[in-house]
Specification:
Blueprint (H helix, E strand, L loop, with lengths): L12 H7 L2 H9 L7 H13 L3 E5 L5 H12 L3 E5 L6 H5 E3 L1 H13 L4 H6 L7 E3 L1 H12 L4 E5 L6 H13 L1 E3 L8 E3 L7 E6 L8 H5 L2 E5 L4 H11 L5 H16 L9 H13 L7 H6 L1 H4 L3 H9 L1 H9 L3 H10 L21
Parallel strand pairs: 1-8, 1-9, 2-5, 5-8
Antiparallel strand pairs: 3-4, 6-7
Length: 352
């Protein structure tokens, strides 16, 4: 669990939606530098209004996980996050009784004169239960009244039995825990559940059909050029215009190259631009581009192909591109893009 930042108010997205509307919520999320896609955001709004989990799918790097992180950051929500993986058990999701604590409590009670049978009956309460990340989100909200956000990342990696453990919890808001006293239900018995957000990279059938039937659905497209420009500008607002335009041209060219086995995702371009800005790089050149390889090449073959294409990349970023330059100028608040050729800083002037 990531706790809310102290001194900052916790904002309930459902309340914002009800009182101020979807536009206000979208603008709040955008303050984190995340630019929501229209259709997934619309599905998220419906999930908030109905208290229904949302399953999101899309290609890697389309912003699925980052969306949940942006909502948690913008609203300062208690954030429960579980990266799913094969071999997980129901205990990881829901939790289990702490038997060591139970045995110690029973021994103390017996030492104080309590009959063993009676002593053993007193330790099957929530005080002796260790919550898993999923049920923990429900229990925290039930205990505090504060809306929580639960992210189950890449849920398609869970096996069918493990996904089955989630069905009751997601549908009813609570889990049945055998032996629990005084009530075997843990979670939220009445009222809205946490905001539950699930991601999957399996575009076929990796998610249980019953789980899908209990959820709303959204598909994330790979960011289009206009969205890429807007996101880069929002995430790295200190980037100078010449460097920004060059990097967008490089990104578009890289995406079009068939020689690369694994293309960098948008997060890689954000990380690279932020690195260049932090290092005070005003523009790209051969040496700077060579230093970018570790951000962009993901395999040995891609590493070799990248270095072989550096001069090709130099030509691309130096050539005019009216679309990229106009979109970038708009994000920088310019009436017109800078029309003169961008100056490529020489290798002697700067280093990566």
């Amino acid at each position: 669990m990531i706790r809310p930042k102290p001194g900052k108010p916790v904002l309930d997205p459902r309340l914002i939606l009800a009182e101020e509307g979807a536009v206000a919520l979208k603008e709040l999320i955008a303050t984190t530098g995340y630019v929501p896609q229209e259709k997934p955001f619309a599905a998220f709004v419906k999930a908030l209004r109905t208290g229904t989990p949302l399953i999101t799918e899309g290609l890697g790097g389309s912003g699925k996980t980052a969306f949940a992180e942006a909502v948690a950051e913008a609203c300062n929500l208690p954030f429960f996050s579980l990266p799913c993986m094969p071999g997980m058990t129901g205990e990881v999701l829901l939790g289990k009784f702490n038997t060591e604590m139970q045995h110690a409590a029973i021994r103390r009670a017996i030492d104080q004169g309590v009959a063993p049978t009676k002593a053993s009956r007193t330790v099957w309460t929530a005080d002796y239960y260790e919550f898993g990340e999923v049920l923990g989100a429900y229990a925290y909200m039930a205990r505090t009244g504060v809306t929580t956000l639960l992210l189950l990342d890449e849920i398609d990696k869970l096996d069918a039995q493990c996904q089955f453990h989630l069905l009751q919890l997601l549908a009813r808001g609570y889990a049945d825990i055998p032996k629990l006293q005084p009530d075997n239900r843990l979670g939220i018995v009445q009222g809205l559940p946490p905001i539950v957000y699930l991601t999957s990279n399996n575009m076929a059938s990796g998610v249980n059909g019953l789980l899908r039937s209990r959820s709303l659905y959204a598909w994330f497209d790979a960011p289009k050029l206009e969205e890429t420009v807007r996101i880069l500008r929002a995430r790295v607002p200190d980037a100078p215009y010449p460097l920004f335009v060059q990097l967008v041209k490089l990104a578009e060219q890289y995406r079009s190259e068939s020689a690369f086995v694994q293309k960098p995702e948008l997060r890689d371009w954000i990380r690279l631009l932020a690195h260049l800005v932090a290092d005070g790089i005003p523009a790209l050149n051969e040496r700077v581009l060579a230093g970018c390889a570790s951000f962009l090449a993901k395999t040995q073959d891609d590493w070799a192909n990248y270095h072989a294409k550096i001069f090709r990349f130099l030509g691309v970023i130096e050539a005019p591109d009216a679309t990229i330059e106009t979109l970038s100028a708009r994000e920088f608040g310019m009436l017109e893009p800078i029309r003169e050729p961008l100056h490529l800083v020489s290798a002697s002037e700067t280093a990566a």
